[in-house]
Amino acid sequence: MPEAILSYMPDSLQRILRPVWPALAEQLEEIRVRENRPLELRLSGGSRFVAPGGVLTGRPNEAYMPTRSDCAAVLELLTNHSAYSYEEELRLGYITIPGGHRVGLAGRAVLEGGRVRLQRDVGSYNFRIARQVVGVAKPFVPSLLDIGAATLHHTLIVSPPQHGKTTFARDLARIVSAGEWPPGAWGNGPAASRPGLKVGVVDERSELAACVQGAPRFDLGPRTDVLDGCPKAEGMMMLIRSMSPEVLVADELGRPEDAAAVREAIHAGIRVAATAHGNDLDDVRRRPALRELLGEGAFRRIVTLRRKPGEPLQGAVWDEQGRRLFATSGWAGGLSAGAGYRPAAATAQNGDERKGASAR
Amino acid sequence: MKLLGAALVLLAATLFGFFQALQFARRPRQIRELISALQRLETEIVYGSTPLPEALRRLSAAAAEPVGPLLGGVAAALAQRPQTPLGELWREEAERVWKRSAMKEPEFEAFTRLGLALGLSDRTDQAKHLKLAAAQLKAEEQTAREEQKRYETMWRSLGVLVGALIVILMY
């Protein structure tokens, strides 16, 4: 599948990458192309440089150095020889390509009125290889369901970058939309074969659905509407008005207007599942917008995730009281729900989690 | 026999003169055509944000010889060899077309210089490059018109006269 990425490389880089491609395709996470600096591959096992002829090496001085014209060619290919039709992407600093892969850009920012208008002379590219991990959220789903209301709890998904937040949110949207409930999730009875819910995805950074010209590249389930590239706060309101979702999914809450939109959605009777950057809830609570929401108890379920390279995703589910409802078998408690979030009546179990964290 | 030879020489010289005159008449017209194509390209880029391959295909359908085939050729080359920088393809196509056209070196320079900037920056910048190229081409059009005035009729009669001179000398 990542084969498509090679077509965005000039011949010089293709010649170097093609020999290593078949062996690495499965563990490749990032390709870093930096002008006059070593060509780097980030694998699930670590970082390697690539020498001319397609030889992997640990030594940066042996590696191939992409030239200025290599970098210019990459930008031409990414923008289809038309940088002007990618002004918004150049401003935000990334371009999504077919397959859902995301290419991050760093160059010289062009300012206008003190704000970044776009970037030029791009000298660093980060090809982030996206993989949909179908079923990754499934074990967590039973603890996220609000049986009484026959829907999902308001859920906040917390993890550091690159630890599977977005992958989790994507799979959660797919499961909820498809109605792929784990056996017994709704108890035994007529409710056990409940259909999926209507899901609205606000995909501000085109990461959840990876839309290319409006069509999602990832499977988000049959009952999902995607609003692509739209600011979250505005997008949530637009979806509520226009698409009558039962569950809203959004990526990376953090700005004050996001909190207001979440509140609005909650009052409209819509369940919200959103992600936030952070090591644990303590981190998240330090961000003003999220602190308010958490203080109000807006999120009834908190999912913390952690992923070691090459291993399956680990995680735990907490309720708004800080009680742990679920954890995967390999969960070491490295990312506790955080002391600050725990009300006075914290459970002993949670205390153990924290001890585990400090011992590591 | 000698008469027939003389007639052939006269005819050849006259045709050569007419051909030269025609080149002088064609040059400003072709430059004009190129300028209007660039103006349409500017509209496509600035108001439509149309990706370049698509914009070039559209323009090539609307423009006359030799500009239509020129832009169409670039679009086709882009589809075939997307890995090659646009500036390179742009120049290759221009070299091919210029040989067959009445246009000369200064137009070629202005046109290929545009190719090095096209598609590489934002809309405002692209508009500037296109305007600059159009302005340079307009100046060339002006000189081409003056040259046309000066040399077109000259070449037309010069051909016949030179033919006649050769015939007289041969006799």
From TrEMBL, chain B:
Keyword annotations for this protein, in alphabetical order, are:
Coiled coil, Membrane, Transmembrane, Transmembrane helix
Coiled-coil intervals? 127-154
Q: Which Pfam families match?
A: Spore_III_AB (PF09548)
Residue ranges spanning the membrane: these are 153-170
What name does UniProt use for this protein? Stage III sporulation protein AB
Species name for this entry?
A: Gordoniibacillus kamchatkensis
